[in-house]
Automatic annotation (TrEMBL):
Name of this chain's protein: Uracil-DNA glycosylase-like domain-containing protein
Signal sequence segment: none
Domain Uracil-DNA glycosylase-like: 31-188
Any matching Pfam family: UDG
Coiled coil: none
InterPro entries: HI_0220.2, Uracil-DNA_glycosylase-like, Uracil-DNA_glycosylase-like_sf
Amino acid sequence: MASKRALSKLLAEVRACEVCREHLPLGPRPVLSVGSSARLAIVGQAPGTRVHESGTPWDDDSGDHLRAWLGVDRELFSSVDLFAIVPMGFCYPGKRAGGDAPPRPECAPLWHARLFEQLPQLSTVLLVGQYAQAYYLGKSRKKTLTATVRAFEDYLPRYLPLPHPSWRSRIWMKKNPWFEAEVLPALRERVQLARGL
Ligand code: SF4
């Protein structure tokens, strides 16, 4: 049964989680942001070092890019009544050749379903990047991330797949102009609907 009290209790459990401590170079520090009236969820990868330090989700260049895609400023983005920010891994997972390691695989199976149970007004889950899409779309994913994002209408209204908004996505957007022309307007429409506008 969803209630503010049940959600606070659950968030306290998440914040005390140490399940994969031995794999986390900077130790556990779950970074997420969830309110019981959230309309949209953002499921990204895992915090980088900057977000680990600040404790604020998407407090980096990728976050600026994501906010531009959504058409919202920092203040609106931080509204827990609008956005639930629930990455695939809540703690910084360390480095691997070429960048950050993937989100810890223990995290989403342990927490996501329990958190989403507490969000009865959720309309759409934004699946940001390959890990979120693999977990939530499973076999209904297309062969590539580009093809999955291009087929975004197949997954609405529950899911909307997006690329990860890193610097690489800027090059990707140039090669795939349909993203700006078709996907971003649909994304902003979901935001407007969620705001009741
Ligand atoms: S990544 Fe997830 S499962 Fe691992 S310690 Fe952090 S909250 Fe717990």
